[in-house]
Amino acid sequence: MMQSQIVSRPRYRDLAAEDTAGAHLLIVEGDTLAAGQMAALATAFAVVAERLQTWLVSAPATALAPGRVRRLHTVEEARTALEHIEDGFGIADRLYLQGTEPFMWSLATAAGRAGLSPTQIRMQHAGSLKRRVWCTHCHQTTENVTTNIATCAGCARALLVRDHFSRRLGAFMGVMVDAEVPGEVPQREEVFR
Amino acid sequence: MSLVFKPEETFRGDYSYRNSDAAILRFPFPFPEDRYMYSVNIEPHVRSGPTDAFCRPFDIDEHYIAECRDRALTLELDPGRCQVLPHMMAAQWDTLELLMENLAADYPEQFSLTKEGDVFGSRWTWINRPLGIEQHFIFGDPDTLPCEPFEYITRQAQGDFAICDQREDNLYLDAGMITSQADWSLAFNVGMNFMEWHGPVPLAHQAGVFERALKYLLMLRLGQPVRRLNWTMSINPRLDTSPESYPEWGPDRASVTVENAGGKVHLRVELQTLWRLPRSNAILFPIRCFLISIEELARVPKWGKRLYRVLSSLPPELAEYKGLTRYLPATLAWLAPLDDGAQLATGIGPDITELAPL
Ligand code: HEM
């Protein structure tokens, strides 16, 4: 289910440090770290180790990471920290994100507001495929959706979760599934585990 | 063409919208052949074409007043249908100027524009007779208009409008007045690039259609607008078929029968034009929507037969994407008796100059 015909869906690749002269910031969603992953990241970022800062968000206290390490508790805390980063960003700087889609896009939009261009951001999906879903009817978002059909947190309609994705909202589109024939709702299936 | 407006018509509630004989004959029928598939169907937007609807830069017809009122109703319910990102102010004025100049030139009985004042002639007077508007303002000073310039002028035009900012060899959907869309959300799409907002369209990406179209558009030149037709179908003559209001109009799709299809099922054609804007270098994308019931359409025999052939051979992916699947069988059953199998001339013109009386 990671790829579909719908091309607004971003494609993610394994992170690799780019040897640019600027600062390198890696932000990892800690509770998605599988065994051995941090070692792989340490190897991937060895070339820029001196210029690297790693933020571990909601990671176990024992987790190790390459570069200068900063520990944050929540994605909101990481957003705020990004938006207030000292001296802003330069064009040689890079931001690398690893985690679930809602996590990565929350931070990517915050980085955008802090002046980073999309071409300076790299993302690698890790952990759950759960989605943030934006309701086309009431415009509220529903978090942590793992099923093909979700109940909207705003208007309680049953929403079909489409693959159409908005980077600005960091969310997939949800459309009322039984608008044409009320009550005609297909079986819910857990497809974004 | 003399314009007789039908100000009482509605696009919701009792759906009293109808087309006169003249409006049927000028309809921009979208099918030159018996089969349809996506292609890069872009041609110069010149002052001529297969029907009268193509012949002016910005078309106005008998539905003008009623359509402007319907837009105002939709905006009252959902102001988010008009969105403009902050860096688009120059493009807003570009749009206002382009529309006012063309409407005043093509429809002098309805609209007039005069420019006075200092060397730049920035004191403008805009008169819109059908809507009863006389506005004095300073071109370039938004405080002299009742709302921002893009919203101001597009409230007085038929069809939706998007403005695409051009940067990094791509187009970004950074402004829109979208109240009569075929099921896409401006609030979701605003800020997306050309490939992203076209994400849901089936088959066309894989066929390279969007890649070629984008390349072409990036080179679009000032004073050389282009056009293309797009089409879908709607139940009832409803302008606001947005995803936002889908819970309201969705049930209509399940109400179609062979008996009522003729009056209920409408062909919805968008005459889309593309204009390079002079100050902002953005691209203006007006989407002029034409609605016609299949009963009205079939009064042009060539069109009734051709519509049957196109719909009965439509790739299932397109039928599904356009939302036709539920009522396509009833529509085909209604159209089938019209098709005698005769060979039809290539091209989209009606090939008649008068309709047979009802
Ligand atoms: C630059 C201005 C344009 C804008 C703002 C625009 C916008 C859109 C939008 C919002 C959709 C609906 C997508 C959805 O399902 O959410 C769409 C559909 C589509 N667009 Fe465009 N478009 C533009 C230009 C073009 C051009 C130049 C082509 C030429 C090939 C094109 C071909 C299509 C096609 C084939 C569809 C599917 C329509 C259907 O089957 O009903 N578009 N467009």
Descriptive overview:
- The complex is a heterodimer of chains A (193) and B (358).
- Chain A has two domains: 24-125, Rossmann fold (3-Layer(aba) Sandwich), CATH 3.40.50.80; 131-176, no CATH class.
- Helix content of chain A is 16%, strand content 29%.
- Chain A has three helices and ten strands.
- The longest helix of chain A is centred in the middle third of the chain and has 13 residues, at 101-113.
- Chain A is elongated.
- Chain B has 358 residues and is an alpha+beta fold.
- Chain B has one domain (21-338).
- Chain B has helices at 21-25, 64-77, 89-106, 149-154, 186-189, 194-197, 209-218, 246-249, 261-264, 294-297, 301-312, 316-321, 328-335; strands spanning 43-44, 82-84, 111-116, 123-128, 133-138, 160-167, 170-177, 226-235, 265-276, 283-293.
- In chain B, a hairpin with a 4-residue loop joins strand 4 and strand 5.
- The longest helix of chain B is centred in the first third of the chain and has 18 residues, at 89-106.
- Chain B is globular and about 65 Å long.
- Chain A binds chain B through residues 5-9, 134, 136-137, 139, 157, 162-169, 173, 175-176, 179-182, and chain B through 80, 185, 187-192, 195-200, 202, 205, 243-244, 246-247, 250-251, 253-254, 326.
- Protoporphyrin IX containing FE is lined by residues 38, 40, 42, 162, 164, 171, 173, 182, 184, 189, 197-198, 200-201, 204, 209, 213, 217, 228, 230, 232, 283, 285, 321-322 of chain B.
- Chain B: InterPro entries: HODM_asu-like.
